[in-house]
Amino acid sequence: MLATLFYEPSTRTRLSFETGMIRLGGNAVGFAGTGQSSVSKGESIADTVRTVAAYADVIAIRHPKEGAALVAARAAERAGVPVINAGDGGHMHPTQTLADLATIRQRCGRLTDLTVGLCGDLMFGRTVHSLIETLCRWGNIHFVLVSPPELRVPQYVLDRIDKASGCSYEQVRDLAGVIGSLDVLYMTRVQKERFFSEDEYVRLRDTYVLDRARLAAARPDMAVLHPLPRVNEIATDVDADPRAAYFDQVANGMLVRMALMAAVLDDPLPGYGDEKRQTPAGEQ
């Protein structure tokens, strides 16, 4: 039994977790929005999680505050229920990164020796922070960080790149000047929900828009990724381009979350466990 505790709105992440658990043969319960739970009455994260841990075998939590997943994991530890971070504020989104890695490997055939451009809201974009952190573990990545000065990558993320083997970065404002050098372009939306000022959001939201004209300068094998949802930072005329990989990310997101849930529950995926499998003659 999976419990999805989503304190923030979600389409892909929540539904892929729930659909994935059902496809694994399990079930899913939970809430999508604080108004549907005792959170609306002031209940703490820890108390909610301790309660839900009595009903579920694994919990996926999304919360607007950084560090909420860690609080939840500690609360569920006594019950022995694993907690999966489905996004905590502007900090990290590790399961989206699994989908990103699967898609990059599909398109590029590798996860090293790449030039990866990340464009848009790099300050509050938790998917960006998670992806950089994880690609640094593979090494030999050159990150091209494209953003206005107000939305640059936090220093702690840059420090991680500096410490990684063979990794480097450059910070630029102009996407057009670097798009031709990229293996991967990771577009992000400017996140309205992270801004304190509506005027500041409106001023920055249209800074980067990728359309077919701008994409013409890119290499024919470059992959365009986006964690979605998009607002207007990728024009719909890009969707038909073979370089568009963001809906591949959606499909891969469900598959990697299925694998993750199976792993934390120590319940091997059908056909991938330790049991002997029947194989055609001559197949290894």
Write out key terms for the chains shown.
single chain, about 280 residues, Rossmann fold, five-stranded parallel sheet, four-stranded parallel sheet, 9 helices, about 35% helix, globular
**Which value, in Å, is the CA radius of gyration?**
20 Å
Q: Write the CATH architecture name of the largest domain.
A: 3-Layer(aba) Sandwich
Neighbour order of strands in the largest sheet: 7-6-5-8-9
> Please, how many helices?
9
**How much of the polypeptide forms β-strand, as a percent range?**
15-25%
Percent helix: 25-40%
CATH superfamily of the largest domain: Aspartate/ornithine carbamoyltransferase
Poorly predicted sequence stretches spanning 5 or more consecutive residues? 273-284
Shape: globular
Number of strands: 9
Can you give the mean pLDDT? 89
CATH domain fold name of the largest domain: Rossmann fold
SSE order: EHEHEHEHEHEHEEHHEH
Query: Structural class of the secondary elements?
Result: alpha/beta
Assembly classification: single chain
Q: Profile the largest sheet.
A: 5 strands, parallel
Distance between the ends: 35 Å
Indicate the CATH class of the largest domain: Alpha Beta
Number of domains: 2
Describe the structure.
The chain has 284 residues and is of the alpha/beta class. It folds into 2 domains: 2-89, Aspartate/ornithine carbamoyltransferase (Rossmann fold, 3-Layer(aba) Sandwich); 94-249, Aspartate/ornithine carbamoyltransferase (Rossmann fold, 3-Layer(aba) Sandwich), CATH 3.40.50.1370. 34% of the residues lie in helices and 16% in strands. It has helices at residues 12-23, 45-52, 68-77, 94-108, 126-138, 155-163, 198-204, 212-215, 246-264; strands spanning 2-6, 28-32, 58-63, 83-88, 114-119, 141-146, 168-172, 184-187, 223-225. The strands form 2 sheets. It has a 5-stranded parallel beta sheet. Strands 2-1-3-4 form a 4-stranded parallel beta sheet, with helices on both faces. The chain starts with a strand and ends in a 20-residue tail after the last helix. The relative contact order is 0.13. Pathway: Pyrimidine metabolism; UMP biosynthesis via de novo pathway; (S)-dihydroorotate from bicarbonate: step 2/3. It comes from Bifidobacterium magnum. Residues 2-106 form the Aspartate/ornithine carbamoyltransferase carbamoyl-P binding domain.
